């Protein structure tokens, strides 16, 4: 989780990861290539609070909202730390933007977000993204989409996790920056 910083911008590092992601399979998600120096979201806390609100209060809308957040940040390079952007994303996912505004204003879900962050780091998860796939070690970083899909397919074939752990990140050698970046 990043601290609230207004001086953050996209760098060649960010561009390299997006370029790798956007040149994968034809069914990979769409990625926008931001200009070096473009404004980077100043904090991950607002989108995490928003996602936690949706997960807890509107679980039936969670995956729609999660995908909309992903597409806004990676597909359109929007500042998902901005409340107006989050409100628009909430509306597109069938949620009440004014209710989200209240959630963000009160910080109601901030303790949950901070607790989950503390739990993850205390278990050794320091990289973004880190995806847990049953039957595998953590999938860490911007691994090729085909590798992630293959890990999930194997987990499904094995009945969700009855097998030997094989870290996808160790096999691909791909890693991304730590959770504070």
Spatial arrangement of strands, main beta sheet:
1-2
Structural class of the secondary elements?
mainly alpha
Question: What is the number of domains?
Answer: 2
Largest sheet: 2 strands, antiparallel
CATH superfamily assignment of the largest domain?
A: putative protein disulfide isomerase domain
Mean pLDDT: 76
Helix content estimate = 40-55%
The count of strands amounts to: 2
CATH class of the largest domain: Mainly Alpha
Q: Percent of residues in beta strands?
A: under 5%
Q: What's the helix count?
A: 8
Distance between the termini: 7 Å
Low-pLDDT residue spans: 161-181
Radius of gyration: 17 Å
Task: Tell me about this structure.
- This protein is mainly alpha-helical.
- It has 2 domains: 12-110, Orthogonal Bundle (Cyclin A, domain 1); 130-172, no CATH class.
- It is 49% helix and 2% strand.
- The protein contains 8 helices and 2 strands.
- The chain has helices at 12-22, 45-57, 62-75, 83-92, 97-106, 110-122, 145-157, 168-172, and strands at residues 130-131, 139-140.
- Strands 1-2 form a two-stranded antiparallel ribbon.
- Strand 1 and strand 2 (139-140) form a beta hairpin.
- Helix 2 runs antiparallel to helix 3 and helix 3 (62-75) crosses helix 4.
């Amino acid at each position: 989780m990043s601290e609230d910083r207004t001086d953050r911008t996209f760098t060649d590092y960010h561009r390299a990861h997006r370029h790798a992601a956007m040149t994968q399979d034809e069914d990979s998600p769409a990625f926008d290539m931001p200009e070096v120096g473009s404004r980077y979201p100043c904090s991950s806390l607002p989108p995490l609070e928003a996602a936690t609100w949706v997960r807890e209060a509107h679980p039936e809308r969670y995956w729609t909202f999660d995908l909309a957040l992903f597409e806004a940040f990676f597909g359109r390079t929007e500042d998902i730390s901005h409340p107006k952007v989050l409100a628009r994303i909430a509306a597109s996912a069938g949620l009440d933007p004014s209710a989200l505004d209240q959630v963000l204003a009160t910080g109601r879900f901030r303790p949950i977000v901070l607790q989950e962050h503390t739990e993850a780091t205390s278990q050794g998860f320091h990289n973004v993204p880190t995806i847990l796939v049953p039957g595998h070690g953590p999938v860490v970083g911007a691994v090729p989409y085909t590798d992630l899909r293959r890990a999930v397919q194997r987990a499904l074939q094995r009945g969700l996790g009855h097998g030997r752990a094989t870290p996808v990140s160790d096999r691909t050698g791909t890693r991304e920056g730590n959770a504070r970046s």
